[in-house]
């Protein structure tokens, strides 16, 4: 049996460790140099950001899993006129506690909080491991109409019709025709 509770700023360390576990489970292991900044941001957001929500699952007083999410302002669309949506940022369960329903319960708990706050939708990016849980909880796969993409700083972009060499003095930047 486990219990769910709201996280406090004092939980920033364990929330960051669970975020590391999540990333390592998806495609790790990873370096840990990002963790101090993550812990500080988590502590700050738990202290003074009412849009940030975090919940912990405990088994016999031991933190076994966590879910974090946020309320986001959004532009209305034809399918959803609401101007606020929930977004699940991270979900992780320690390996020793997996298979007990902790991840699904945390997701349900956070989703219900967001829906009660007036969200018409709750979104997330799912790992291959997590997708079946989210489908069971009513999340829909939008991959037929949406492709998740990122552009990372510092990675080269192939020269194409939108990119042209920029003069080093930036005085004349050619515009693609």
TrEMBL record:
Keyword Transferase set for record: yes
Pfam family, one: Acetyltransf_1
Keyword Cell membrane found: no
Residues covered by the N-acetyltransferase domain: 2-154
InterPro entries found in the cross-reference section: Acyl_CoA_acyltransferase (IPR016181), Bact_Acetyltransf (IPR050832), GNAT_dom (IPR000182)
Keywords on record: Acyltransferase, Transferase
Coiled-coil positions: none
SUPFAM superfamilies named among the record's database cross-references: Acyl-CoA N-acyltransferases (Nat)
Protein name as catalogued: GNAT family N-acetyltransferase
Organism in which the protein naturally occurs: Paractinoplanes lichenicola
């Amino acid at each position: 049996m486990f219990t769910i509770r709201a996280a406090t700023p004092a939980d920033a360390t364990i929330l960051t460790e669970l975020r590391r576990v999540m990333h390592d489970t998806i495609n790790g292991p990873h370096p840990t140099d990002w963790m101090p900044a993550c812990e500080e941001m988590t502590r700050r957001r738990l202290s003074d950001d009412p849009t940030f929500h975090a919940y912990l699952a405990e088994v016999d007083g031991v933190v076994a899993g966590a879910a974090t999410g946020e309320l986001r302002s959004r532009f209305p669309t034809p399918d959803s006129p609401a101007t606020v949506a929930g977004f699940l940022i991270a979900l992780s369960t320690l390996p020793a506690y997996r298979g007990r329903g902790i991840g699904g319960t945390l997701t349900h708990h956070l989703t219900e909080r967001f829906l009660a706050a007036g969200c018409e939708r709750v979104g997330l990016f799912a790992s291959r491991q997590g997708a079946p849980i989210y489908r069971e909880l009513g999340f829909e796969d939008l991959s037929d109409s949406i492709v998740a993409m990122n552009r990372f700083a510092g990675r080269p972009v192939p020269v194409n019709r939108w990119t042209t060499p920029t003069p080093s003095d930036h005085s004349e930047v050619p515009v693609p025709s």
